[in-house]
Amino acid sequence: MRPTEMSMVQVNPMYQTNTTEPVKIREQAHTLVLWYQHHHRNMPWRETLDPYSIWVSETMLQQTRVETVIPYYHQFMESFPTVRELAAADEQTVLKHWQGLGYYSRARNLHRAAQQVVSLHGGRIPEKLEDFRALPGVGPYTAGAVFSIAYNQPVPAVDGNVLRVVTRFLGIFHPIETAAARQAVTAHVAKWLREEQPRYLTQALMELGATVCVPKSAKCSECPLADTCFARAENVVEQLPVRKQKADRKCIDVVALWWEADGKLWMEQRPDSGLLAGMWQLPAWEVGAAGHDDLALERALKERFAEWVYRLHAERAPAGDDLPSFAKIAHEKHVFTHLEWDVHVFRPIFTERGLPVPEPDHRRPVPLNEVHTLPLPRVYEKLLQQIYG
Question: 3-state SS of 373-385?
Fold first, then answer.
């Protein structure tokens, strides 16, 4: 009988003895490792047991596809081959190396953590789990990946792939966002880890979730656990894992300014915390929910432009129709996890009156041939390519 979402977060009774008795646990772990040894993909971070290299790769792989990560990993490791060299680097340089990977807090945390490794641990990656977990940005998954793969310790590394494999295998119908579901998965992974070399078992589960037990159209006929998988036996593979309903993504109109003069382009640096912290973009302002027409967007930009440019030149501040007009020159959408930006770029149409030059604050004019050296969010990188090539 198919369970409901209200089932207890345990192995379903019909599979209790078939999947959780010690002999079966040992067989499953051994089968997973054998499968991995014969079917795993070759990746650069699988050619080393260096904890720093594995730490960098696992940080990059969070929320990002392997194919995207590989060239970034090579470039990053070439520029920062040791934790000391990463710690000594400027944050803007680190962010520039991360440009295009997204989720930039990962880069900032990795950089800060490297500095702590140098200052608190003499430049050696901590070999005590509690010390490693105390570093910025190091959560249970990252710690599990580094300690199981680099140090061969039985520390579970439970990411989305592993959650999917184990919830299907055990028949867990609680939403995977709940602590109870994650704890049940982690507990079962820990049992497997005690029966085989952790570095192989951890990577086997990651590989299985990435290549066979995929979200849609799972390749059950290729799965080493197929014979004892609850989801396959009950024909509920596509229903697992269960997820909570996502909130609607917020869509925002953003007006951005292309102000170029004397071979320089005005740019602004985002705040040190929050979304895209510390990165550079065109001067920009959010103007509310997406859907404004171009006239409304231009009016919104005029107000914000006047507030910025003329605030130090009150005696020259124009009003109403005397403000400069703007021409729209580019448009790009960008989707974050819970937010979507609709970015509209306008260029000011200068008049004989001219414009005062504001004093640099978090905005400053940057030589056009240096703009590409700044760490730019992907959406602004695309916009600059549209406009400037």
Answer: HCCCCHHHHHHHH
DSSP 111: H
Distance in angstroms (rounded) separating the CA atoms of residues 21 and 11:
11
Phi, psi angle pair for 171, to nearest 5°: 80, 50
When the candidates are 1.20.1740.10, 1.10.340.30, 1.10.540.10, 3.30.70.120, the CATH number that belongs to 13-239 is 1.10.340.30
Residue length of the chain:
389
The structural domains of the chain, with segments of one domain joined by +, span: 13-239, 250-388
> What predicted TM-score, i.e. pTM, was given to this entire model?
0.82
The set of catalytic residues is 58
* CA triple 29-34-37, angle to 5 deg: 125
Give residue 163's Cα distance to chain centre. 18
Q: Which residues pair with 269 in a beta bridge?
A: 280
Angstrom distance (rounded) from CA 189 to CA 221: 22
- For the stretch 126-136, pLDDT in tens is 999 999 999 99
* CB neighbour class for 338 (10 Å; exposed up to 12, middle 13-18, buried from 19): exposed
Q: Quickly list H helices, 150-239.
A: 160-170, 179-193, 198-211, 230-233
Of 232, 241, 132, give the one whose Cα is nearest residue 178. 241
In whole angstroms, give the CA distance from residue 365 to residue 263.
9
Domain 250-388: which topology?
Nucleoside Triphosphate Pyrophosphohydrolase (3.90.79)
What number is the average pLDDT over the span 157-177?
Answer: 94
What letters, b where the CB count within 10 A reaches 16 and e where it falls short, cover 170-183? Answer: bbbbbbbeeeebbe
- pLDDT tens-digit series, residues 248-295: 889 999 999 999 888 899 999 999 888 898 999 999 999 999 889 999
What is the distance between the alpha carbons of residues 331 and 190, in angstroms, rounded to a whole number?
Answer: 49
Q: Taking the CA of residue 347 as centre, how many other CA atoms within 13 Å lie in the half-sphere pointing to its CB?
A: 12
